[in-house]
Amino acid sequence: MSMSSYSDVFSISHEREYDEEISVGDLVRTGPNLFPHFEVVALHGDKAWVRNVQNGADHLALVSRCRKINGQAFAQAAE
After folding, report:
1. Which regions in the chain score pLDDT beneath 70?
2. This protein's superkingdom (predicted)?
3. Are 22 and 28 a contacting pair, CB within 8 Å?
4. What are the φ/ψ torsions at residue 73 (nearest 5 degrees)?
5. pLDDT tens-digit series, residues 44-62
């Protein structure tokens, strides 16, 4: 028996409903929540290596779940 995810149980879709290119250096979030924010460190195929800007923790995320924050790169947003 496989475990159900929160997304499966509540039928939550994390896929982006629009086309927006994600690039290395972009500031993104990974869902409808406003936080946490992540900096895109690297991209490979459909996966993004992202770093939490608050605590520095690294994660892998599907690019389709990443949403650019205000369309700005991290370096620009930090200014």
Report:
1. 1-19, 71-79
2. Bacteria
3. yes
4. -75, 160
5. 999 999 999 999 999 999 8
Examine residue 79 and state whether it is found in any structural domain, yes or no: no
Residue 7 lies in a domain: no
Residue-wise DSSP of 27-63: EEESSSSS---EEEEEEETTEEEEEETTT--EEEEEG
CA distances from residue 71 to 12, 60, 68, 74, 75 in whole angstroms, order as listed: 24, 21, 5, 10, 12
- Residue 8 has φ and ψ, to the nearest 5°, of -70, -45
Residue for token pair 């927006």 = 20
Number of compact structural domains in the chain: 1
